Amino acid sequence: MRVGVLALQGDFEAHGRACVRAGLGPAVEVRTPAQLEGVDALVMPGGESTTISKGLVRTGLDAALRARIAAGMPVLGTCAGAILLSRRVQNHPVPTLGVLDATAVRNAYGTQVDSFTSPVDAGALAGLEGLQAVFIRAPRLEALGAGVEVLARVDGAPVLVRQGHVLAATFHPELTDDPRVHRLLVQAG
Q: Is residue 170 helix, strand or coil?
């Protein structure tokens, strides 16, 4: 599986390194619809969701991504990436891809100075025990649709969810040495 990382804004280089740690090989940086065609799965990084959303529209990647995700391409969105996958956004809404039946509440955990790390409650999903989640201006996912499975929570709130081949994490798994969240991308395919 050839994995791409959306490289319009955000720490896409850290996700590239995380893909290597996860055994997914070197990631391809994706900035155009033509580059998207060359990958089998995509990571959408955190960053500033308004900036990334505008970049998606400007480059035509918004329509290309919707089509590829509808056709079954696995995708992992982290932090801002999770916002951009969601159907609805609160707290300064931005245009999204609308492929995850959830409401993303932007900056729900506070500002940059409110950043924190927390262990997740992996619930019934084996293999995520002890996972540490790094939250930076993180969104909260609410109003999950019936088809959205919660894979991990922090303080009762969903922080890692899956709907078919769409994965969303409200935290930054690329900022730890733990490759398990990125490995879920292969399992989603």
A: coil
Per the structure, how many domains does the chain have? 1
Residue 166: Cβ within 10 Å count: 24
Residues annotated as catalytic (active site), given as ranges:
79, 172, 174
* DSSP per-residue letters across 110-157: -SGGG-EEEE-B-TT-TT-TT-EEEESS--EEES--TTPEEEEEETTE
Q: What is the CATH number of the domain that holds 140?
A: 3.40.50.880
91-145 confidence digits (pLDDT tens): 988 999 999 999 999 988 877 788 888 989 886 666 888 899 999 989 999 999 9
Residue carrying structure tokens 């997740």: 120
pTM of the model: 0.94
**What range does the domain containing 66 cover?**
3-188
